[in-house]
Amino acid sequence: MSIRGFFNSEQKNIKIAALIMAIAVLLSRFLGLIRDRLLAGTFGASADLDIYFAAFRMPDLIYSIIFAGGILVSFLPLFSEYQKKDKQESWQITNYVLNLFVVSYFAFFVLFFIFTPGFVSTLIGKFSPAEQAKTIALTRLIFVSVFFFGISSIFSTILNYFNRFVAYSLAPILYNLGIIFGIVFLSPHFGIFGPGIGVVIGAFLHFAIQVPPAIKCGYRYKPIISLKHPAIANFFKLVVPRIFASSSSQIDFIVATFIASGIGIGAISVFNLSNNLRYLPIGIIGVSFATAVFPLLSKLWASKEKEEFFSKFRQTFLEVLYVSFPIGVLIFVLREPIVEIIYRTGKFDESAVVITGACLGLYFLSTFAQCLVPIILRGFFSIKDTFTPTVIALVNTLFNMVFFFPFVALFGEGINSVLNFSAKISILPSPWP
Questions:
Q1: pLDDT per residue over 27-40, tens digit each?
Q2: pLDDT band for position 177 (cuts 50, 70, 90)
């Protein structure tokens, strides 16, 4: 098979599809680690790196709430339904959704540009005026990437339905390569704006690589838009609950960023770097299996094959559980070596390694649960139930916000209190001398 043939090939077997995505996710996460290592080595746990991570909060919130929080998971079941009824109409609906997104993006871009200063000053009010101004400029730059990610999510829906997982899996790899390019080649000239430019470049590549396979599947662009088609009404019924569910995780990040900005310089960086490490097994295991099984579950439910639907769901759930639990324990045991190997370079010193390792160690209990969440969510989405996951997500956000502040009070404002708390709850000692 030629490279082009493999690029456009169809993967019908769930395990093969999951394997392809797991390998791609592993490579993407590896590049993500290189990206974070370069960020840590170039900027350290510094105000500039805090600014970089804080600049993502508003674009990520709007991306999740307005644009792509539920496009794939809400549109895929509808696309599956109309592909079975009338393929030509399914492509027409795809263009409706895509053009509606483009129009919405440019409308929100104006509002975003106007309200960014107020949002940033509220989020990181304890930053200096110069740091806030830099955060505002970087936030506006990163928002450009939302345009490419929104369109990309629509093409991802097409590739998921037709089991074209190769291009879909390569997209995040190109995104990370774009940021790495920005860090290595642009940051010497533009400072922290170098990675920001890299984000936009990576987002464009994320979108561009998925276009050719989508065209191969039969997609053709048409400048048409309609709000009267029944599928659009159904799409909004599915996507509106996802708006609240998707925004919940971003609200968690916003509250955490707000709290961390008051703790001291580097706190936002430590939180984000440790959180990125926590998501490694979630992306490699949970998201890979969930993405691979989602099209099949949608098709089985649409075909009313309920017994097969539950059988595939249960099988995937157990496979992920058996793999993810021991990995969580392993992450706890090796928390400091992991951080030392990945982040210890340049301006990222030993004290930053210790506190980041302590934060990573506290995450281990949730590893298996976080890996199972994507599977469970895809099960609900397959049966076109976006309300139940929304309620669960909102309750989860409420609990997080309630516990954020007591734990900050428990830890105090210093690194030593976090480390002491981490040492007290340690079941297994860190093997790092």
A1: 887 898 899 889 98
A2: very high
259-266: long-range contacts, CB 8 A cutoff, minimum separation 24: 259/404, 259/405, 259/408, 261/50, 261/54, 261/123, 261/124, 261/125, 261/126, 261/127, 262/126, 263/408, 263/413, 264/413, 265/45, 265/46, 265/47, 265/50, 266/44, 266/45, 266/46, 266/49, 266/50, 266/352
Segment 52-84, tens digit of pLDDT: 988 988 887 777 665 555 565 677 778 888 888
3-state secondary structure the chain: CCHHHHHCCCCCCHHHHHHHHHHHHHHHHHHHHHHHHHHHHHHCCCHHHHHHHHCCHHHHHHHHHHHCCCHHHHHHHHHHHHHHHCHHHHHHHHHHHHHHHHHHHHHHHHHHHHHHHHHHHHHCCCCCHHHHHHHHHHHHHHHHHHHHHHHHHHHHHHHHHCCCHHHHHHHHHHHHHHHHHHHHHHHHHHCCHHHHHHHHHHHHHHHHCCHHHHHHHCCCCCCCCCCCCHHHHHHHHHHHHHHHHHHHHHHHHHHHHHHHHHHCCCHHHHHHHHHHHHHHHHHHHHHHHHHHHHHHHHHHHHCCCHHHHHHHHHHHHHHHHHHHHHHHHHHHHCHHHHHHHHHCECCECHHHHHHHHHHHHHCHHHHHHHHHHHHHHHHHHHCCCCHHHHHHHHHHHHHHHHHHHHHHHHHCCCHHHHHHHHHHHCCCCCCCC
Distance (Å, whole) CA 411 – CA 349: 22
Look at residue 5 and tell me if it is in a domain: no
pTM score:
0.72
Buried b (16+ CB within 10 A) or exposed e, 332-355: bbbbbebbbebbbeeebeeebbbb
Tell me how far apart the alpha carbons of residues 361 and 110 are, in angstroms, rounded to a whole number: 42
How many domains is the chain built from? 1
| 156-188 burial code (b ≥16 CB/10 A, e <16) | bbbbbbbbbbbbbbbbbbbbbbbbbbbbeebbe
The amino acid present at 170, given as its one-letter code, is L
Q: Domain for residue 22, yes or no?
A: yes
Is 397 in contact with 61 (CB distance < 8 Å)? no
Q: Is 168 within the bounds of a domain?
A: yes
Range of 101's domain? 10-425
Please report whether residue 323 resides in a domain. Answer: yes
